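I'd like us to work through together how a protein chain folds, taking it slowly. We need material for that, and I hope you will provide a protein of your own picking. Go ahead whenever you are ready, and we will take it from there:
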Amino acid sequence: MMRAVRRVRTTRGRLVVVVTGLLLSALVALGTTSIVIMRESLVSQVESTLYLSNESALTQVSSTLERTDALPRFDDFSIAVPQDGFFLVLEGRSPRLSAFFTRDYTYRPLSSNENREIREQPFALDDIRQMTLREHGTYLVTANLVEGPQGATYTVITGVGLTTTDAVVTTYVIWIAAVGLCVAALAAAFGYRLVARELDPLEHVAQIAQQVAATPLSSGEVAPQGRAPRDPRLRGSEADRVAMALNRMLEHVESSLNARHRAEESMRRFIAEASHELRNPLASIRGYADFYSASPAGPEEMAGALGRVGAEAKRMSALLDELLLLARLDADPEMSAEEVDLSQIVLETVSDSRFAFPDHSWQISLPDDAVTTVGDEDAIRQILLNLVANAGHHTPSRTRVCISIRQHDHETVIAVDDDGPGIPAVAIPTLFDRFTQAGNGTTAARKSTVGLGLAIVKALANAAGYEVSVRSDAEGTTFAVTIPRRPPAGEQSVEEPRSR
């Protein structure tokens, strides 16, 4: 019993109950209306029979009184009595003549009990009433007055039975009820299967939601969750839209939680790397300070110690500058928009790189005419310097590095291409994350970098509205910075009214 109640409480059970109830209500209303209409039609037919029988009886009684000055004999009026009907003539309250025509086409005079039962029930003259006889059922009855030749007044009562009509109506009610129950049972069975098929995607949605609810999502990387299947037959339905919304939400949740996990891992690496990078210079500075404060040193030794202290301080300052730059870009990514000579920036950057990394082969590929764009000059210089430094640190000696500029209709592309060993494929998705070290260079190169250069490139590009991409294989690596073409701010404001 409890299990049945629980099924009714489900949406599927409630829908089946509601649909079946509505169908039963419609069948009851339709059946009741048809029963009332059919009974009224049958009663109207009985009223017509009663009218004809009454007119025949009145005519026969009146004509016999005028002709013989007496009531007709029993055999004279028997033809006027219909099947399942009766005929009664009263003089005052006394019965003078009667007949009863049974349903098996025989007739007889009314018995004394039948005469008394008819006289005791009220009836109105020239009106049709229903009268119930205990042994015979319900009748339609009418009464009329007939005057005799000597001033005598006779009441002629004629009745026609409704037994056949009631039997037909009862049979019709039984059939209506039986057919209605069968239709309701079939509707419940097929409706349950139809509703179950329609709500099957919601059942899958509930299962997927329960699986996700049982998955620990508070920490760590989130494994790919299941997805609610979508039935091609139900595309566009409410259940299909719910399944599609759940799948989209799960994708967002997974990407958000995994991004949070990567951010947490990046923060842990940041704390570890920053602590390591700052600890070594501080340890060196403290060591020199403690050593030379405890023992006197000559001028040459003191100058060397101060040089080492300065180098370590410069290293800490560079690291802090990079961290401050990333923090500033996170808080205020706004950039200036001014005309920038990209060709000049590339030439100056390559010139500096030849002195910083003399073991590499530096090349340029520029158009014949100077290339200009609108953007933030400092950001473009920093992006190009970091990409060139990345190639210099993470590729072996005698590696060829080429910086090129390509112009297209709506954009300008600056590319840094090298023929080094390439970047591992597993490192490409997180290459621009903070403190990421792909590990394709030498050990010394990896120790000399913290992993903030490409993160700064990505942050500057996002802030300036540029796009940074990387392509790497065993033949080399190419970093490309795509700069969309747009007019300077002042020039744009002047040209807009002219176009209007």
Summary: The radius of gyration is 54 Å. The CA atoms of residues 93 and 119 lie 8 Å apart.
